[in-house]
Recover the amino acids of this structure.
């Protein structure tokens, strides 16, 4: 579903992503791991079409993100880091605007908005201004936006950052449920979360893929160490 | 199409959710109102102190240009800079919408708001033009009915769009209404003996028409300039100040009036870009000089094109 081949991105002289290749099969939930500044967000931004790669290629459901950007973007629900929203709009207003932007017809808009509102538990804040929402609710609005056009692929950049434990649990449950119908690439720092929700992991360090495979494979490869130990040994942090 | 409409709608309504729009409206109304007052004074005076053309003072006064030159940057400063600062640009640019659609939608939204700014000045026209309206309610003919029905369709379409009617339906209703009103009105005007409504202007109206044409086109140029500057920077304040500075180049020349030979090349260059001079020499006097129109329209397209490029370049950085 997501196919990435020798992706490289330079910011000036600095290589943020170097020669990254991976595949995500249909219906899988893949955890995208790595320390801060490893190139997770950059890779996701390239996939979502916000920036272009210096070299290499990426396709979403067979559509190249560079050559067929509109078709590729139609197949992606993208939740950027920190979930930026327009604070002056109401939740429903915002979702209607986003649905229009994604080319949904009036009837579809109504149906999909009702669906995502109930799916992301936004029923009681439908008429509230986005600017007055708590962090958890904002994250849900972003997630609802990503789900609006019912895209086959979801790319979520740190969907649980800054949430309280109860909200993290809720979001995790939602992600798990969405995994039945969507292919998902989600980045996070919380290793525990990956172990609970993801089928496989891609560990990226200094712009390169350090290790990838299903959770069991990664553990086996590293002689049964926990994911945390693998992460620490790969990134070379000191205990 | 739907994507662009959706974005235009958001950008346009966003003006009414921020205080900037109301501040701009207030200042604009205050200055045009004051200049209208001066115009009325001038109209009632005879001799050299009186005025010749209805918009002579309104569009010729330095006060007006001081406000005008701030209006466009104030309307455009947030369009891209704010999205960049808050990060919503990322959400917008990863939607299935092309760069030029984003630029066009934002431009149309601020242009509509700019037209809205000028709407209240229509209220001055009955006085400025010495309009007399006579009604003849016995003159109902087929063409009159078509015309009135067309106008009604426009109003219905407009309200429908505001209150969430199907975009296409509303659009076509307004389009059909405009065509019907135009054809019906034209038939009524040329064929029928008696007219349902007759408007007579005591003062020659053409200079007012050309003034509005000039104001609309010049506004488009300043707005696209502001849009371009906004796409370059991250801070709204910086966007405002830079756009203001560049706009001043087009305005100051009209008031600086250096001691130049009016036949020489330097003056002609100065005159070519000096928007207030275009108004005081041509537009307010009922002259449509193609040089000015070419400048405004081509500059608008140039700045819109540059905005698209500047958005695109961000992907490469």
């Amino acid at each position: 579903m997501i196919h990435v081949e020798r992706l490289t991105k330079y910011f000036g002289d600095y290589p943020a992503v170097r020669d990254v290749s991976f595949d995500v099969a249909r219906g899988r939930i893949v955890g995208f791991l790595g320390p801060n500044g490893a190139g997770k967000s950059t890779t996701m931004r390239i996939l979502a079409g916000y920036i272009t790669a210096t070299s290499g290629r990426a396709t979403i459901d067979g559509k190249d993100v560079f050559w067929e950007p509109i078709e590729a973007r139609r197949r992606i629900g993208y939740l950027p880091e920190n979930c930026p929203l327009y604070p002056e709009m109401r939740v429903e207003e915002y979702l209607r605007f986003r649905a229009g932007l994604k080319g949904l017809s009036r009837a579809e808009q109504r149906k999909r908005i009702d669906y995502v509102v109930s799916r992301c538990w936004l029923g009681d804040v439908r008429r509230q201004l986005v600017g007055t929402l708590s962090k958890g609710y904002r994250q849900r609005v972003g997630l609802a936006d990503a789900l609006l056009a019912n895209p086959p692929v979801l790319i979520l950049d740190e969907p649980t950052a800054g949430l309280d434990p109860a909200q993290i649990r809720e979001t995790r449950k939602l992600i798990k449920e969405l995994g039945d119908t969507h292919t998902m690439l989600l980045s996070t720092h919380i290793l525990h979360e990956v172990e609970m929700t993801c089928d496989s992991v891609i560990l990226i360090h200094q712009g390169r893929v350090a290790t990838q495979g299903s959770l069991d494979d990664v553990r086996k490869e590293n002689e049964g160490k926990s994911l945390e130990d693998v992460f620490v040994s790969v990134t070379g942090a000191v205990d | 199409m739907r994507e662009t409409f959706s974005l235009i709608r958001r950008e346009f309504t966003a003006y009414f959710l921020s205080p900037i729009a109301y501040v701009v409206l207030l200042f604009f109304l205050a200055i045009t109102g004051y200049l209208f007052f001066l115009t009325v004074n001038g109209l009632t005076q005879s001799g050299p102190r009186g005025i010749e053309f209805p918009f002579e003072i309104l569009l010729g006064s330095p006060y007006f240009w001081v406000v005008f030159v701030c209006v466009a940057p104030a309307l455009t400063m947030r369009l891209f800079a704010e999205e960049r600062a808050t990060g919503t640009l990322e959400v917008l640019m990863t939607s299935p919408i092309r760069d030029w659609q984003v630029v066009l939608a934002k431009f149309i939204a601020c242009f509509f708001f700019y037209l809205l700014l000028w709407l209240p000045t229509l209220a001055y026209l009955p006085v400025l033009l010495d309009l007399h309206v006579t009604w003849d309610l016995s003159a109902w003919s087929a063409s009159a009915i078509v015309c009135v029905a067309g106008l009604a369709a426009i109003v219905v379409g407009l309200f429908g769009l505001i209150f969430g009617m199907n975009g296409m339906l509303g659009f076509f209703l307004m389009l059909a209404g405009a065509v019907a009103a135009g054809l019906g009105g034209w038939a009524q005007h040329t064929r029928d003996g008696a007219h349902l409504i007759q408007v007579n202007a005591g003062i020659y109206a053409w200079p007012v028409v050309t003034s509005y044409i000039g104001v609309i086109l010049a506004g488009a140029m300043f707005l696209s300039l502001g849009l371009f500057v906004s796409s370059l920077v991250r801070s709204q304040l910086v966007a405002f100040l830079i756009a203001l500075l560049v706009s001043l180049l087009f305005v100051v020349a009209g008031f600086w009036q250096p001691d130049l030979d009016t036949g020489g090349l330097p003056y002609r260059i100065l005159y070519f870009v000096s928007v207030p001079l275009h108004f005081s020499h041509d537009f307010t006097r009922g002259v449509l000089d193609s040089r000015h129109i070419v400048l405004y329209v081509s500059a608008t397209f140039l700045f819109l094109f540059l905005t698209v490029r500047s958005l695109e370049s961000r992907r490469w950085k």
